[in-house]
Specification:
About 50% of the residues lie in helices and about 15% in strands. It has helices at about 30-40, 45-55, 60-70, 80-90, 90-115, 130, 150-160, 165-175, 175-185, 195-215; strands at about 1-5, 5-10, 20-25, 40-45, 120-125, 140-145, 185-190, 220. α2 packs across α5 and α3 (about 60-70) runs antiparallel to α5 (about 90-115). Its main location: cytoplasm.
Length: about 220
């Protein structure tokens, strides 16, 4: 049946329920995402996509070398992340050039991965979800992984070997903890280890399953 140029098709699959998972550096986004993946969720990590684009001979490397010069590539053809990090923190123009190269490629790769995603719902891991300004309308829920700033600093210092001032500079470039929590629909607190994480993940997994099932029951509309 057609009405106003729209066709309703119950056989066509409806929209897929999607969650945007975010959090400040060191909050444990990957740990939580892995727990959702273990329960069957399709997890697409934009940070992993960015790493693949800037790995040795990655798809973004020719454009990055053209924009920043060969000094920003390592001997094996990967992005020199430490050198680039130092540049973009001191030069907003360089950050803009970097993002202009990477963000469209990350977006395209993310969309391609989403088309192939399996599982009852999709979780997009997006470290700068709030900062981007575009992800909020692409997901049904925003899930923030939260911990104290002291915990963030300690984790990143131990994991990456960075000095405290370097970690705090990275944190300062991200949105504040208060804003992230204010914009989140759901929050998982990751201050107390895996045993404290498990019930939080399980509760939200059940909720997301219910939301995904409810969305799947809605007939889709196509032009």
């Amino acid at each position: 049946m057609e009405s106003s140029g729209q066709t309703v098709s119950k056989s066509h699959p409806g929209p897929r329920f999607a969650v945007g998972l975010t959090g400040g550096i060191g909050c444990g986004k990957t740990t939580v995402a892995d727990l959702f993946a273990a329960r069957g969720a399709a997890v697409i990590d934009t940070d992993q996509i960015a790493h693949s684009l800037t790995a040795p001979h990655g798809a973004a490397m020719p454009a990055l070398i053209d924009a920043f010069g060969p000094d920003y590539a390592t001997a094996d053809g990967a992005l020199d992340r430490a050198r680039m990090r130092a540049l973009v923190f001191s030069d907003p123009g360089a950050r803009a050039r970097l993002e202009a190269i990477l963000h469209p490629r990350i977006r395209d790769a993310t969309a391609a991965a989403a088309l192939l995603a399996d599982g009852p719902y999709t979780i997009f891991v997006v470290p700068l979800l709030i900062e981007s300004g575009t992800w909020r309308e692409r997901v049904a829920r925003v899930l923030a992984i939260d911990c104290s700033e002291a915990t963030q600093v300690a984790r990143v210092m131990a994991r990456n070997g960075l000095a405290e001032e370097q970690v705090r500079a990275i944190m300062a470039a991200q949105v504040t903890r208060a804003r992230r929590l204010d914009e989140a629909d759901d929050v998982i607190v990751n201050d107390a280890g895996i045993d404290a994480l498990l019930p939080q993940v399980e509760r939200l997994h059940r909720f997301y399953l219910d939301e995904a099932a409810r969305l799947a029951e809605q007939p889709s509309q196509r032009l």
